[in-house]
Amino acid sequence: MTTKQANLNEFSLNQLNRRQFLATTAAAGAGLALKQSVIAQSSSGDKRRRYALVGTGGRSSMFREAVLQTYASSCQMVGFCDINLGRLKLAQAKARSVANVEVPIFEAKDFDRMVRETRPDVVIVTTKDSTHDQYIIRAMELGCDVITEKPMTTDETKCRAIIETQRKTGRKVTVTFNYRYSPHRTQVKDVLMSGVIGDILSVDFHWLLNTVHGADYFRRWHSNKANSGGLMVHKATHHFDLVNWWLSAVPVSVLAQGQREFYTPQMAKRLGLKSHHERCHTCPEKAKCTFALDLAGNARLKELYLDQEKYDGYFRDRCVFRPDIDIEDTMNVIVKYNTGATLSYSLNAFNAWEGYHIAFNGTKGRLEHGIQEKVTVFGDGSIPGAVKPGGTYIRVYPLRSPAYEVPLWPSNSGGHGGGDTVMLDDIFLPEKKADKYQRASDQLGGAYSILTGVAANHSFRTGKTVEIASLVPNLGMPKYAPMPSSTDPVPMPPSAS
Predict the structure, then answer these.
(1) Please, which residues bridge with residue 76 across strands?
(2) At what angle do helices 132-141 and 111-118 cross, to 10 degrees?
(3) Where in the sequence is the domain holding 272, given as residue range(s)?
(4) What is the CATH number of the domain that holds 24?
(5) Residue 148 forms part of a structural domain
(6) pLDDT of 35-92, one tens digit each?
(7) Which one, of 461, 467, 468, 464, lies nearest residue 259 by Cα?
(8) Same domain for 359 and 398?
(9) Of 277, 312, 347, which residue constitutes the final position of a domain?
């Protein structure tokens, strides 16, 4: 057997073991669920809202720390759940360290038991994208509300099941779109709502991922479409949701093209490497590969992933040039909306800088907006989506009148352009403030955010336009703020002379 075959076989076995672990591992000892601690909490008359968290990887820390620290006066964490026992123990140790509380831990196959024994009001879902639906649906069936990381799920079948279960149970689903809450993106919404460019007829939107952040999707579980839905779902759900929310509109049809052009075995050789390899940690060429990720050299990545491999065989640092990757790195999409507006969108994952340009073309003029983001590797301790100083602008170009720069609102610190803090307040504070921008999102917003990407994936394969209603019919409209109407009067622009 060749080294290549051995590596691929090892990977296949690792993946099989992970599935078997979730589906068939024998019942865990009762000691994993510290039931006595939970009973003591509930019998003490504690009136705080109760949260359980399923999925203790990199995306969970924001929610874990919010419940345990920032909002501890009104929230309490009553359970952690995961397929990886090592990460469960790590999450438990973090809770003990930062909040001096003992949070019970449960293996994934004991999710139902966790809900029965800890009685959460809300389940927070931060697992792998392709498993979101399992926990969202089961949590609702067991009487819990749900907070889920984006994307809500990865395909139309799972989306339909979530929508049907929510309608049947009446439970609340919150999908966490932190980009809506960042000050400058909210400011764009404010300008559009004001009607200064009229009603919007078309949008040009170009998102760039650099070769640090962009490459990171090609080494993680995201690099297989069955896990993530590809970048059209996992990453672009943020972008499509922003457009839906900015326009207060929903997609009707999608035509798209996509391919993998940069993260390929051929590119590895063009960059001077002898070949692609299984992973960075054991790569014989890592000293000369600037795409190599040093798990052992980063304390947070080491404790979260490298130290926990023995439990599930998951490699966080797989080669970005390996042949089994099946997601695209170059994507172009045309979307038609229910308002009649159209979107031209592109996403590329190998650019020289990180961020986006967007332009809205309206009946009274044009709005242009752009943000540059800082370099980040997810889970390494850096702030995801942090904005570069001076890299943000909003400009308005009225018809036949001088353009002007819009003074920017003050920026917040924190992740996703300062949106994380504002979003967490909206989710976890007991008193909700009125929000004229309607930034909170439910299962309908979550559905429409993914369905553009799901339709794009279908269009990649068939070359045909895909109707959103053919994927999930009778969705209805999310709650969006009112926007200028296509029937409003439009003033005659100044004379061109």
Answers:
(1) 50
(2) 40
(3) 265-312
(4) 3.40.50
(5) no
(6) 444 444 444 578 999 999 999 999 999 999 999 999 999 999 999 999 999 999 999 9
(7) 461
(8) yes
(9) 312
Structure tokens belonging to residue 288: 């000369």
If one counts every other C-beta atom within 10 angstroms of the C-beta of residue 399, the result is: 17
End residue of a domain, out of 110, 127, 144 = 127
Instruction: Check whether residue 371 and residue 304 sit in a common domain.
Output: no
Cα separation, 76 vs 327, in Å, equals: 38
Cα 415 to Cα 385: distance, rounded to the nearest angstrom: 6
Instruction: Indicate the number of domains in the chain.
Output: 3
Contact between 331 and 262 (Cβ < 8 Å)? no
Q: Are 253 and 349 in the same domain?
A: yes
Six token digits for residue 341: 């507006």
From the list 405, 419, 334, the residue with the least C-alpha distance to 368 is 405
φ, ψ dihedrals at 420, nearest 5°: -60, -50
Looking at the domain assignment, is residue 477 inside a domain?
Answer: no
- Extract the tokens encoding 367: 């709005």
As a whole number, mean pLDDT of residues 371-375 equals 89
Q: Is 210 helix (H, G, I), strand (E, B) or coil?
A: strand
| 209 confidence band (pLDDT: 50, 70, 90) | very high
Which uninterrupted H or E stretch holds 66? Answer: none
Residue pLDDT, tens place only, 240-292: 999 999 999 999 999 999 999 999 999 999 999 999 999 999 999 999 999 99
Q: What is the dihedral of CA 49, 55, 57, 59, to 10 degrees?
A: -60
Same domain, 186 and 258: yes
Helix axes 443-462, 236-247, angle to 10 degrees: 120
219 & 240 share domain: yes
Say what the pTM is.
0.90
Per the structure block, which two tokens stand in for 380? 């390494």
User: CA–CA separation, 490 vs 482, rounded Å?
Assistant: 17
Residues 377 and 452 in one domain: yes
d(Cα 11, Cα 3) in Å, to the nearest integer?
12
Matching residue, tokens 């917040």 = 412
Within this chain, do residues 72 and 216 fall inside the same structural domain, yes or no?
no
CB 243 within 8 A of CB 301: no
372: helix, strand or coil? strand
